[in-house]
Every structure is written in C-alpha cells, then in structure tokens.
Amino acid sequence: MKKAVIIVAAGSGSRMGGELPKQYLPLLGKPLIIHTLERFQHFDPKMKLVVVLASAHRELWEQLADTYEIARGLTLAQGGANRYDSVKNGLTHVDQESLTGIHDAVRPLVSQDTLARCYEAALRKGSAIPVIDMDESVRMLDANGGSVYVDRSSLKRVQTPQVFRSDRIIQAYQQPYLNAFTDDASVYEKAFGAPALVEGNRENIKITTPTDMQLAQLLIDSVE
To answer: Mean per-residue pLDDT for 36-52?
Structure first.
C-alpha cells in the first residue's frame, strides 16, 4: 500500500525564544524540518511528503527550497487556526487508498525502526501510534489541590508519527472539533476506537526548548 506523511510545521515555536520558528532552527547546520523530512525519505523514497505551513512561513520555505532539494517537489498545505485544522488541511492532499502518518516537524530523531513498526502495524490493524514507557514517578492532582500516586506501569508517553489508514483518518477529521482532541490518535479514537500501540524510540523527542535542542545535538548521531 502507498505511504504518505503529513509533517505539521505551522506552529510558531514561541517557547524556543527568538523570531525564527523552531522547525527552521539549525541542528548541526541543517534546519530541523529538513532532518525530519530526510528520515521519512530514507525510510521510503516513494513516500508522499506533505508539509503543512503557516502562510507567514512561505518565504522561509522558499529559502529552504533554494538550498535543499528535498524541500522542492513535495506538497505544501495551508496551516489552519490550530493543529486540528492544519492536519485536516493536510489530509486533503493524500490518497484515501494509502497509509498516512502525521508527524511533528520538530521530531527529527525518529528512528527507521520506529517508522517501520508504525507503518507495518497500521497496514495490519488500521492504526498505530508509537509509545514509550514512563520512567519517572507520576502523581495526579485532585480537585482539592492535593495529589495522588498513579501507577506508572499503566501509563505510556505518546510520540509521532501516528499512522492510520487514510480513509479512516480522513473520516475521523470530519468530526466537529473537541477540546479533548490533543493529538491525531484522540481524533481517531472518537470515531473508530483506540489505536494500536507500537514501541517508539526514546531519542524521538519533541524539540520545544533550548535544552531539547542541546540534547538533540548529542543524540542525532546515535539514531538510525
């Protein structure tokens, strides 16, 4: 089955500080989003690449396209008012008879093994999201300002790409928006039930702060 990925890159990245959106910041001399795109292209050179951009970032993208071949010839989609609308716009560019991954532009350290697990499981089960174990203790706040212990063995940390049969995720995104939709899996779950879980990779961090960027610089050579 054909594969596609929607790279969600319409955010402003305000937590990084500075004027340049975080997805365009350099990691070892190359913008984060280029590293991310190369991960998917290496996994499947025939995969359709869709990048969702904010209109304010078009000029930045044109500058990337002048330098990096991978930024030319892919499909660009218009960013929406929020992530939900951005993904919905991206989905208009994928074939219903395919598998579509939805991935954060600022996760450039996803491994080839994680990609394989996600797409292979989605082919068999209709959906797949990568998760990793919680390795720290967790407490849940209560209504009185206190907290209670939560067994971390019952919790998982969710990553991207979240991969689905395209026809299903397109249908799921026809639902009215809910505040409970924190990621694509929650949108899918409302329509079709819980997605399948596969093992992610710990290096696949979402780069949102300067400290994350420093960590990514240390990790990038260790991820295949």
So the answer is: 98
